[in-house]
Write a structure and sequence with these properties.
The protein has 98 residues and is α+β, with helices and mostly antiparallel strands. Helices cover 22% and strands 19% of the residues. The longest helix is centred in the middle third of the chain and has 11 residues.
Length: 98
Amino acid sequence: MIRVVLPFHLQTLARVDGEVALEVPAPVTQRAILDALEARFPVLRGAIRDHGTLKRRAFVRFFATGLDLSHESPDAPLPDAVAEGREPFMVIGAMAGG
């Protein structure tokens, strides 16, 4: 099981508390996790990725094992700790402003 941590506003939208556990087939990639997340919680479609291009929204970041994976290829395998469920894949709402 893959553990996914969502920011509070997406937890509210999906009506979940805390982490979400997902069954994701290997290889575990950002795309595979987000596909599984959107399949289980259709209300999240378009909130994390653009509907048409499936690219990450500008103010959403992805972290795992202390690394910012936001600019990595969505098809790159994630660290083993994430694939094995020892560490969560985190979706974070980025801050902006001045």
